[in-house]
Amino acid sequence: MRPRDDDAEDGTGEAGGFRGAGGAGGAGEYGDAGGPEGPGGFGGPGPGDGQPRIPLPRASVEDSGQPLPDVVPVVLEHHVLTSLLGAWALAACSAEEASAVEEHIGDCAACADEAVRLREAVTLLQRPESLDLDPALRTRVLDGCLERRPPRIPVPEWAAPYDAETARLDALLQDIGDAEWHAPVRLRWFEADGPASRRTTVAGVLAHLLTVDGAVAVGLGLADPMGEITAAGRGPAARTEAYWRASHYPPTRLVRAPWREQSHGIVRTVSFTGDEGGMPVSYGDFELPLRDAMLDRAFECWVHAEDIAEAVDYPYEPPAARHLNRMIDLAARMLPGALAARRRAGLAAPGGPHLVTAGEPGRSLRLEIEGSGGGEWLIPLDAPGAVGSAEHEVAHVALDGVEFCRLAAGHVPPADAAAGQLGDREAIRDVLFAAASLSRM
Amino acid sequence: MAKRDVKRDVPMRWDRKMQQRLARGEAAALGELYDRFASLVHGLAHRVLDDERAADRITRDVFAHVWEHPDAYDPRQGPLRTWVATLTHRFAVQRLRATETAALARGGPGTAEELELKVRHASVAARADYIVQSMPAPLRAALELAYFQRRDYRQTAADLGVTEDEARRRLRLGLQLLSTARDAPTAPEAPKAPPGYGGAA
Q1: Alpha carbon of residue A117 to chain centroid
Q2: A7, A27, A146 ranked by CB distance to B27: nearest
Q3: How close is the nearest chain B Cα to the Cα of A12, in Å?
Q4: Where is this region: Disordered (chain A) (predicted)?
């Protein structure tokens, strides 16, 4: 169970947007039977606001010279007594007021009825149960619905991981307290074969997701979350830095609503694109087809949700196996391009003895991913367009799916990745470094 | 011309739009519906049934019902949230009654009267939860301070930055709203909208 230290949270989340839109109960409760209540509603000897509340004893008692009783009932007007009924029922008034109310309801049937009713109502007050909804319940419920009535406009299969990951992150965000939004987070990635990092906060991480998801939103014709903010470049890092800089104050929990609205808008809009997600989406310095961009955003959402969960000390599970499998597949498909880029930059060993033309089988590395969501991929080593081939396998790497994703996120240095290795050591090193180079801020 | 109540129009527009999207079979709309109401539905079902898996099942049934019968919701009768809460309440109470009746038939402990009492308690408790969640935020905040944080009404007034008169008024009004949770009958043929879910919440 997640800790819950924020009782002020109303627990209704987004649904809370309805509050204030009228009463919950039957009509008429707003009518106040106690009559108009102006300032200075205390009658009798009660002093004004801010004064000590102990009333002066009544003259007759004083005159008698007898000891004063501990609690002297104050003399209050009927409408004041009525207005006190709620506070009295909650034991939230002074002892003097309480005894005045009690004395009064001995004589006044209407107030006695209400007093009983309100006392009973108090017993209905219960602490909201801080039950965490099982994130897997969402998929089960939605799948059950869609089986009973197949959708005319389904969410594309390639958008399902993004839909699920954004919902999981949102459930985490619903449970964290105001202060936790400012918990420090260190974003980590791999750059030029070395670790890189950037300090921000939980809210800052969500602003990062908002701005980079924004690239997909813009590609779909939705509003750019950057608004009027201009960035030095169109890449993810430049957009994020510009967004952070544009505000005088660090981001707060207020960033949650626009992020969620945008992610819902993206899922909704991709349901209508209808071209198998082939539309190119520009990230500024690179491009992905929409279906891959959606996998990439799902992956980033999970990785940063883990950053957030770690910062606020909440548990967070890896994605569902079939979604994890799609994310690993995307990384595996991007590896040949990343290898080529490293080779061009002189960071990786030159291609093999025989150059391979596109579409031909070439030297390959078998990437075996264990655990849920795993599988096997043959990574062509010599050219991005070459075809992975079991006959030309020169190396075999085996590692756990989550570990591979942490490597591809730049959270585990390639040298430390817990990988079983067999075969061409140089090829293995190149592929592990290429995997890490897929990461970015 | 009277000023339009923007606060109220926005959710009503969202409700109507959601209904249209569900009706035309948009799976993304179902996801959004779940994201907005799942914790409400699960919470109410759990309050009635006091069982995690049973609450999961009610959650599944409620969303399946809304997805299969989006036209059953009439926006003129009130907000979508109220309709969803009413469905949840009805399904959960039906289920509680069914499981308790089955247990009784198998020779379990208790009497038919005790069963009715238990159903009624669970039903009232769930309705009370909903009323607290749906009442205007200032009333809920006052109750929260006075009841859970044990502040007296003067401290409550200071905490909320309102007059003491206003604090007393909010506490009384909040409890008056809450007391309507007991007003609904819990007969097997539950009415369409028990008082606790009615109104303009």
Answers
A1: 41
A2: A146
A3: 7
A4: 1-65
Which of B81, B143, B176 lies nearest to residue A18, judging by beta carbons? B81
List beta partners, residue A282. Answer: A287
A319 lies in some domain = no
Based on the domain organization, do A370 and A303 belong to the same domain? no
A382: confidence class by pLDDT, cuts 50, 70, 90: confident
Phi, psi values for residue B102, rounded to 5°:
-65, -40
CA dihedral A340, A343, A347, A353 (to 10 degrees): 120
Q: Which residues are bridge partners to A379 per DSSP?
A: A365
Q: Is A26 within 8 Å of B199 when comparing Cβ atoms?
A: yes
Task: Single out the residue of B132, B130, B27 nearest to residue B86, CA to CA.
Answer: B130
What CATH number should be reported for the domain holding residue A232? 1.20.120.450
Domain ranges of chain B: 11-197
pLDDT interval class at A249 (50, 70, 90): confident
**Number of domains, chain A:** 3
Domain region containing A116: 33-122
CATH number of the domain encompassing residue A413: 3.30.1050
Nearest to A124 among B25, B79, B125 (CB): B125
Residue A290 shares a structural domain with residue A369: no
Chain A partners of B30 at a C-beta cutoff of 8 Å? 142, 145-146, 151
Which chain B residue shows the shortest CA-CA distance from A14? B36
Say whether pLDDT at A255 is over 90.
yes
Residues from chain A that touch B179, judged by Cβ atoms under 8 A, are 117-118, 120-121, 124
CATH class of the domain defined by B11-197? mainly alpha
Q: Which pLDDT band holds residue A36 (cuts at 50, 70, 90)? A: very low
CA atoms within 13 A on the CB side of A383: 13
Comparing B54 with A5, the larger pLDDT belongs to B54
A190 with A299, same domain: the answer is: yes
Per the CB < 8 Å rule, is A149 touching B67? yes
